[in-house]
Amino acid sequence: MSVKITSVMNPVWANSQKTRANVYITVQHLGDELIPFTACSGDSEPHGRELFQEIVDGKHGIVGDYEPLVTNQPTITGANTL
Amino acid sequence: MSTSLNSLGITYPDSGGTQTKTAILTNLDATTSYYNSGNAGTGQVNHNGTQPVGTYALLKNVDTTYGIYTYNSTVAGSNLVYCLAAGAFIEYDLSSVSKSGYDSVLRFAVGTWRCMGFTRTTTTSYAVTLWLRIS
Fold first, then answer.
1. Which residue has the higher pLDDT, B4 or B48?
2. Any chain B CB within 8 A of the CB of A48?
3. Best residue in B31, B53, B110 to probe A by mutation, most A CBs within 10 Å?
4. Which of A42, B37, B42, B64 stands the most exposed, by the fewest C-beta atoms within 10 Å?
């Protein structure tokens, strides 16, 4: 399936190594729906690879700093902890 | 030169007479199930974290910022990692890894994924569900 990206906004690095970037995009096959997208140079999809290169080249503006994910670390606080 | 296998558009490129061939999926749509690209000779799935649009995967949402994802909501691949049904593998694997080390350990997805179930990321066991890559 060929994906045609129609708009790109708010690029932000998705990891500290800057090998992936998050953006919001619209694509032709989904109409006006604004969707989050992770672009990566190693994507199997050509539109993902091309978008990542455009982000690196600054075509979509300044790329925001990476912010680590907020995650749940496992805890052992009692017998009833899931 | 490719050989078309069926109406779904699954083709196997000519690899010059060798036995190893890679399937390429074309004309994908969101209403049909597909196998991932991989080695057709052994049936192994190509698990590289960069699956094509139209792929279904069991993924765990590791971003608890938004808490709940319902059916049909979308999320960036950077928030999703491949995992077992209960997500236990991820916790076990990360038992000695700091948050900053997540990226080197986890197999993150890329692109955009649509939720095919329901997740509540504030509870580990409920953070896993079926996702469909849509872009």
1. B48
2. yes
3. B110
4. B42
Rounded distance between C-alpha atoms, residue A61 and residue A68, angstroms:
21
Q: Is the pLDDT of residue A12 over 80?
A: yes
Predicted structure pTM score: 0.68
Q: In the predicted model, is pLDDT for residue A19 greater than 70?
A: yes
Q: Helix/strand/coil (H, E, C) string of B12-74? A: EECCCCCCCCECEECCCCCCCCCCCCEECCCCEECCCCCCCCCCEEEEEECCCCCCEECCCCE
Distance CA A39, CA A52 (A): 5
The first and second tokens of residue A23, run together, are 């953006």
Nearest CA in chain A to B91: A74
